[in-house]
Design brief:
Blueprint (H helix, E strand, L loop, with lengths): L1 H21 L17 E8 L2 E10 L8 E5 L10 H9 L3 E5 L17 H14 L5 E6 L1 H12 L4 E7 L16 H9 L3 H11 L10 H11 L4 H17 L13 E6 L22 H11 L4 E5 L6 H4 L1 H12 L1
Parallel strand pairs: 3-4, 3-5, 5-6, 6-7, 7-8
Antiparallel strand pairs: 1-2, 2-4
Helix pairs in contact: 3-4, 5-8, 6-7
GO molecular function: haloalkane dehalogenase activity; monoacylglycerol lipase activity
Protein name: Haloalkane dehalogenase
GO cellular component, one term: membrane
Length: 331
Protein backbone atom coordinates (compact mmCIF):
# COMPACT_ATOMS: atom_id res chain seq x y z
CA UNK A 1 0.00 0.00 0.00
CA UNK A 2 2.80 2.37 0.90
CA UNK A 3 4.58 1.63 -2.36
CA UNK A 4 1.36 2.29 -4.29
CA UNK A 5 0.97 5.66 -2.54
CA UNK A 6 4.56 6.54 -3.35
CA UNK A 7 4.05 5.63 -6.99
CA UNK A 8 0.90 7.75 -7.16
CA UNK A 9 2.74 10.66 -5.53
CA UNK A 10 5.60 10.38 -8.02
CA UNK A 11 3.21 10.23 -10.99
CA UNK A 12 1.24 13.18 -9.62
CA UNK A 13 4.41 15.24 -9.14
CA UNK A 14 5.59 14.31 -12.64
CA UNK A 15 2.28 15.38 -14.21
CA UNK A 16 2.25 18.63 -12.21
CA UNK A 17 5.86 19.38 -13.15
CA UNK A 18 5.21 18.61 -16.82
CA UNK A 19 2.24 20.96 -16.81
CA UNK A 20 4.26 23.70 -15.10
CA UNK A 21 7.12 23.35 -17.60
CA UNK A 22 4.63 23.38 -20.49
CA UNK A 23 3.53 26.84 -19.34
CA UNK A 24 7.06 28.25 -19.58
CA UNK A 25 7.33 30.67 -22.49
CA UNK A 26 10.53 31.22 -24.50
CA UNK A 27 12.19 34.51 -23.50
CA UNK A 28 14.74 36.39 -25.58
CA UNK A 29 18.07 37.65 -24.26
CA UNK A 30 16.80 41.02 -23.04
CA UNK A 31 13.33 39.89 -21.95
CA UNK A 32 11.57 42.25 -24.35
CA UNK A 33 8.61 39.83 -24.31
CA UNK A 34 8.34 39.89 -20.50
CA UNK A 35 6.68 42.76 -18.61
CA UNK A 36 8.32 43.93 -15.40
CA UNK A 37 6.16 45.07 -12.46
CA UNK A 38 7.19 48.73 -12.83
CA UNK A 39 8.20 51.00 -15.68
CA UNK A 40 11.64 50.17 -17.06
CA UNK A 41 14.21 52.84 -17.92
CA UNK A 42 17.53 52.40 -19.70
CA UNK A 43 20.89 54.03 -19.08
CA UNK A 44 23.25 54.11 -22.06
CA UNK A 45 26.68 53.11 -20.82
CA UNK A 46 29.92 53.77 -22.67
CA UNK A 47 31.89 50.89 -21.24
CA UNK A 48 34.91 48.97 -22.52
CA UNK A 49 34.75 50.52 -25.97
CA UNK A 50 31.10 49.69 -26.55
CA UNK A 51 27.66 51.12 -25.88
CA UNK A 52 25.52 49.06 -23.54
CA UNK A 53 22.03 49.50 -22.16
CA UNK A 54 21.49 49.01 -18.44
CA UNK A 55 17.87 48.56 -17.40
CA UNK A 56 16.47 49.82 -14.11
CA UNK A 57 13.20 50.54 -12.40
CA UNK A 58 12.67 53.74 -10.44
CA UNK A 59 9.71 53.29 -8.11
CA UNK A 60 8.53 56.57 -6.64
CA UNK A 61 7.00 56.67 -3.14
CA UNK A 62 3.37 57.58 -2.58
CA UNK A 63 4.48 60.05 0.11
CA UNK A 64 8.24 60.54 0.31
CA UNK A 65 10.19 60.12 3.52
CA UNK A 66 13.24 61.55 1.76
CA UNK A 67 15.11 58.25 1.60
CA UNK A 68 16.16 56.08 -1.33
CA UNK A 69 16.95 52.36 -1.30
CA UNK A 70 18.57 50.33 -4.07
CA UNK A 71 17.80 46.61 -4.48
CA UNK A 72 20.46 44.43 -6.13
CA UNK A 73 19.49 41.04 -7.58
CA UNK A 74 21.25 37.67 -7.48
CA UNK A 75 22.85 35.68 -10.30
CA UNK A 76 19.82 33.52 -11.14
CA UNK A 77 17.43 36.47 -11.01
CA UNK A 78 16.73 40.01 -12.16
CA UNK A 79 15.04 43.05 -10.70
CA UNK A 80 11.50 41.70 -11.15
CA UNK A 81 11.65 39.46 -8.08
CA UNK A 82 11.82 42.54 -5.85
CA UNK A 83 8.21 43.43 -6.78
CA UNK A 84 6.59 42.96 -3.35
CA UNK A 85 9.57 44.42 -1.49
CA UNK A 86 9.52 47.50 -3.71
CA UNK A 87 5.77 48.01 -3.31
CA UNK A 88 5.99 47.85 0.47
CA UNK A 89 9.02 50.16 0.56
CA UNK A 90 7.19 52.63 -1.69
CA UNK A 91 4.17 52.51 0.62
CA UNK A 92 6.49 53.42 3.51
CA UNK A 93 7.83 56.47 1.67
CA UNK A 94 11.03 55.14 0.11
CA UNK A 95 12.12 55.76 -3.44
CA UNK A 96 13.26 52.39 -4.80
CA UNK A 97 15.90 51.91 -7.51
CA UNK A 98 16.14 48.39 -8.98
CA UNK A 99 18.89 47.85 -11.58
CA UNK A 100 19.41 44.86 -13.84
CA UNK A 101 23.18 44.40 -13.95
CA UNK A 102 24.84 44.19 -17.35
CA UNK A 103 24.51 40.56 -18.43
CA UNK A 104 21.20 40.11 -16.57
CA UNK A 105 17.49 40.71 -17.04
CA UNK A 106 16.63 43.37 -19.60
CA UNK A 107 20.17 44.77 -19.74
CA UNK A 108 22.65 44.17 -22.55
CA UNK A 109 24.34 40.76 -22.86
CA UNK A 110 27.78 41.67 -24.26
CA UNK A 111 29.79 38.83 -25.76
CA UNK A 112 33.09 40.60 -25.17
CA UNK A 113 33.23 42.18 -21.72
CA UNK A 114 35.61 42.07 -18.80
CA UNK A 115 33.21 41.44 -15.94
CA UNK A 116 34.26 42.43 -12.43
CA UNK A 117 32.41 43.44 -9.31
CA UNK A 118 34.12 46.82 -9.51
CA UNK A 119 32.80 47.26 -13.06
CA UNK A 120 29.27 46.29 -12.01
CA UNK A 121 29.46 48.72 -9.09
CA UNK A 122 30.72 51.48 -11.41
CA UNK A 123 27.89 50.80 -13.89
CA UNK A 124 25.38 51.00 -11.03
CA UNK A 125 26.87 54.27 -9.80
CA UNK A 126 26.36 55.72 -13.30
CA UNK A 127 22.60 55.23 -12.95
CA UNK A 128 22.57 56.94 -9.57
CA UNK A 129 24.62 59.83 -10.94
CA UNK A 130 22.17 60.30 -13.79
CA UNK A 131 19.31 60.33 -11.28
CA UNK A 132 21.29 62.72 -9.04
CA UNK A 133 21.07 60.36 -6.05
CA UNK A 134 24.06 60.80 -3.77
CA UNK A 135 22.85 59.11 -0.58
CA UNK A 136 20.98 55.82 -0.33
CA UNK A 137 20.48 52.50 1.42
CA UNK A 138 21.79 49.44 -0.44
CA UNK A 139 20.28 45.94 -0.22
CA UNK A 140 21.90 43.03 -2.03
CA UNK A 141 20.74 39.41 -2.26
CA UNK A 142 22.95 36.45 -3.24
CA UNK A 143 25.43 37.68 -5.90
CA UNK A 144 23.85 41.09 -5.37
CA UNK A 145 25.39 40.95 -1.91
CA UNK A 146 28.84 40.78 -3.48
CA UNK A 147 27.97 43.70 -5.76
CA UNK A 148 26.58 45.65 -2.78
CA UNK A 149 29.72 44.97 -0.76
CA UNK A 150 32.00 46.17 -3.56
CA UNK A 151 29.76 49.20 -4.15
CA UNK A 152 29.89 50.12 -0.45
CA UNK A 153 33.68 49.75 -0.34
CA UNK A 154 34.10 51.87 -3.47
CA UNK A 155 31.54 54.57 -2.58
CA UNK A 156 31.24 54.59 1.23
CA UNK A 157 30.24 58.26 1.27
CA UNK A 158 27.12 57.42 -0.75
CA UNK A 159 25.84 54.49 1.34
CA UNK A 160 23.82 55.25 4.47
CA UNK A 161 23.13 51.62 5.35
CA UNK A 162 23.96 48.23 3.87
CA UNK A 163 21.76 45.12 4.01
CA UNK A 164 23.05 41.72 2.88
CA UNK A 165 20.39 39.05 2.38
CA UNK A 166 21.91 35.57 2.13
CA UNK A 167 24.83 36.94 0.15
CA UNK A 168 27.19 34.54 -1.56
CA UNK A 169 30.90 35.19 -1.14
CA UNK A 170 30.96 34.78 2.64
CA UNK A 171 33.80 32.33 2.06
CA UNK A 172 36.55 32.06 -0.57
CA UNK A 173 35.33 29.29 -2.86
CA UNK A 174 38.66 28.89 -4.64
CA UNK A 175 40.27 27.69 -1.42
CA UNK A 176 37.88 24.70 -1.49
CA UNK A 177 37.14 23.90 -5.12
CA UNK A 178 39.23 23.50 -8.25
CA UNK A 179 39.11 26.13 -10.97
CA UNK A 180 36.62 25.88 -13.82
CA UNK A 181 37.49 27.74 -17.03
CA UNK A 182 34.94 30.09 -18.57
CA UNK A 183 34.60 27.68 -21.48
CA UNK A 184 33.80 24.82 -19.10
CA UNK A 185 31.32 27.02 -17.22
CA UNK A 186 29.70 27.96 -20.53
CA UNK A 187 29.23 24.31 -21.53
CA UNK A 188 27.69 23.67 -18.11
CA UNK A 189 25.30 26.62 -18.48
CA UNK A 190 24.19 25.37 -21.90
CA UNK A 191 22.92 22.18 -20.27
CA UNK A 192 20.41 24.04 -18.07
CA UNK A 193 16.72 23.29 -18.54
CA UNK A 194 13.51 24.26 -16.78
CA UNK A 195 13.70 20.99 -14.89
CA UNK A 196 17.36 21.33 -13.85
CA UNK A 197 16.74 24.88 -12.64
CA UNK A 198 13.74 23.72 -10.63
CA UNK A 199 15.67 20.86 -9.07
CA UNK A 200 18.44 23.27 -8.07
CA UNK A 201 15.98 25.72 -6.54
CA UNK A 202 14.15 22.95 -4.69
CA UNK A 203 17.42 21.77 -3.17
CA UNK A 204 19.04 25.07 -2.24
CA UNK A 205 16.17 27.51 -1.95
CA UNK A 206 13.04 25.74 -0.79
CA UNK A 207 14.01 22.49 1.00
CA UNK A 208 12.18 20.35 -1.59
CA UNK A 209 8.85 22.10 -0.93
CA UNK A 210 7.49 23.81 -4.04
CA UNK A 211 4.80 26.50 -3.90
CA UNK A 212 2.97 28.22 -6.73
CA UNK A 213 4.41 31.61 -5.77
CA UNK A 214 7.91 30.33 -6.61
CA UNK A 215 7.01 29.58 -10.23
CA UNK A 216 7.31 33.10 -11.73
CA UNK A 217 10.96 33.39 -10.68
CA UNK A 218 11.73 29.97 -12.14
CA UNK A 219 9.91 30.81 -15.39
CA UNK A 220 12.11 33.86 -15.99
CA UNK A 221 15.34 31.88 -16.24
CA UNK A 222 13.74 28.70 -17.58
CA UNK A 223 12.21 30.68 -20.44
CA UNK A 224 15.67 31.70 -21.62
CA UNK A 225 16.66 28.05 -22.14
CA UNK A 226 13.83 27.68 -24.69
CA UNK A 227 14.91 30.61 -26.87
CA UNK A 228 17.51 30.74 -29.65
CA UNK A 229 19.23 33.57 -27.71
CA UNK A 230 20.12 31.24 -24.85
CA UNK A 231 23.80 30.75 -25.85
CA UNK A 232 24.22 34.52 -25.48
CA UNK A 233 22.67 34.44 -22.00
CA UNK A 234 24.66 31.34 -21.02
CA UNK A 235 27.93 33.00 -22.02
CA UNK A 236 27.24 35.99 -19.75
CA UNK A 237 26.27 33.60 -16.94
CA UNK A 238 29.61 31.82 -17.37
CA UNK A 239 31.51 35.11 -17.22
CA UNK A 240 29.76 36.14 -14.01
CA UNK A 241 30.31 32.72 -12.45
CA UNK A 242 34.00 33.33 -13.05
CA UNK A 243 34.07 36.59 -11.09
CA UNK A 244 32.13 35.06 -8.20
CA UNK A 245 34.80 32.39 -7.94
CA UNK A 246 37.85 34.56 -8.56
CA UNK A 247 36.98 37.90 -6.94
CA UNK A 248 36.13 37.16 -3.29
CA UNK A 249 34.94 39.97 -1.03
CA UNK A 250 35.27 37.96 2.19
CA UNK A 251 38.68 39.43 3.02
CA UNK A 252 37.34 42.99 2.91
CA UNK A 253 34.30 42.80 5.18
CA UNK A 254 36.55 44.19 7.92
CA UNK A 255 36.88 47.41 5.89
CA UNK A 256 33.15 48.18 5.90
CA UNK A 257 32.33 51.08 8.22
CA UNK A 258 28.73 51.51 7.06
CA UNK A 259 25.92 50.40 9.41
CA UNK A 260 25.18 46.87 8.18
CA UNK A 261 22.42 44.31 8.60
CA UNK A 262 22.82 40.63 7.71
CA UNK A 263 19.58 38.73 7.02
CA UNK A 264 20.54 35.07 6.92
CA UNK A 265 18.38 32.06 6.21
CA UNK A 266 20.27 29.41 8.15
CA UNK A 267 19.16 26.43 6.03
CA UNK A 268 20.98 27.84 3.01
CA UNK A 269 23.88 25.69 1.74
CA UNK A 270 24.74 27.63 -1.43
CA UNK A 271 28.43 27.42 -2.30
CA UNK A 272 29.88 28.11 -5.74
CA UNK A 273 31.98 25.22 -7.04
CA UNK A 274 30.82 22.79 -4.37
CA UNK A 275 30.54 20.02 -6.96
CA UNK A 276 34.22 20.55 -7.86
CA UNK A 277 35.47 20.31 -4.26
CA UNK A 278 36.72 17.07 -2.68
CA UNK A 279 33.82 14.95 -1.42
CA UNK A 280 34.93 15.23 2.20
CA UNK A 281 35.01 19.03 2.01
CA UNK A 282 31.68 19.58 0.25
CA UNK A 283 29.56 19.23 3.44
CA UNK A 284 31.58 22.01 5.11
CA UNK A 285 30.81 24.57 2.39
CA UNK A 286 27.90 27.00 2.45
CA UNK A 287 27.14 26.57 6.14
CA UNK A 288 25.15 29.78 6.51
CA UNK A 289 24.28 29.21 10.16
CA UNK A 290 28.03 29.64 10.76
CA UNK A 291 28.92 32.04 7.94
CA UNK A 292 26.42 34.66 9.11
CA UNK A 293 28.02 34.82 12.54
CA UNK A 294 31.55 34.92 11.10
CA UNK A 295 30.62 37.77 8.78
CA UNK A 296 28.95 39.74 11.56
CA UNK A 297 32.14 39.43 13.60
CA UNK A 298 34.13 40.94 10.71
CA UNK A 299 31.87 43.97 10.10
CA UNK A 300 32.19 46.25 13.11
CA UNK A 301 28.86 47.12 14.69
CA UNK A 302 26.83 45.03 12.27
CA UNK A 303 23.53 43.38 13.17
CA UNK A 304 22.63 39.77 12.38
CA UNK A 305 19.08 38.46 11.97
CA UNK A 306 19.02 34.70 11.55
CA UNK A 307 15.92 33.10 10.05
CA UNK A 308 15.82 29.52 11.23
CA UNK A 309 15.03 26.80 8.68
CA UNK A 310 14.95 29.30 5.81
CA UNK A 311 16.90 28.86 2.58
CA UNK A 312 18.62 31.12 0.08
CA UNK A 313 15.61 33.32 -0.71
CA UNK A 314 14.08 34.79 2.46
CA UNK A 315 12.23 37.58 0.62
CA UNK A 316 10.38 34.93 -1.40
CA UNK A 317 10.14 32.02 1.04
CA UNK A 318 9.28 33.89 4.28
CA UNK A 319 8.50 37.41 3.15
CA UNK A 320 6.98 38.68 6.40
CA UNK A 321 10.03 37.68 8.46
CA UNK A 322 12.32 39.23 5.87
CA UNK A 323 10.29 42.44 5.76
CA UNK A 324 10.18 42.82 9.54
CA UNK A 325 13.98 42.53 9.76
CA UNK A 326 14.51 44.92 6.86
CA UNK A 327 12.05 47.61 7.90
CA UNK A 328 13.14 47.55 11.54
CA UNK A 329 16.67 48.40 10.34
CA UNK A 330 15.81 51.18 7.90
CA UNK A 331 12.73 52.89 9.29
Amino acid sequence: MTNFKNIVAIISFSITSSFAFAQVKPLNATLTNYQYPFEVHFKDLKSQNQTLKMAYMDVKPKKSNGKTIMLLHGKNFNGAYWEKTAKDLSDKGFRVIIPDQIGFGKSSKPQSYQFSFAQLASNTKAILDELKIDKLIVLGHSMGGMVATRFTLMYPENVEKLILENPIGLEDYKTFAKYQTVDEAYQSELKNTAESYKNYQLKFYYDNKWKAEYQPWLDLIAGWTLHKDYPQVAWNAALTSDIIFNQPVVYEFKNIKTPTLLIIGTRDRTAIGKDRAPKEIQPTMGQYQELGKKTQAQIAGSKLVELENVGHLPHIEVYDKFWNALYDFIK
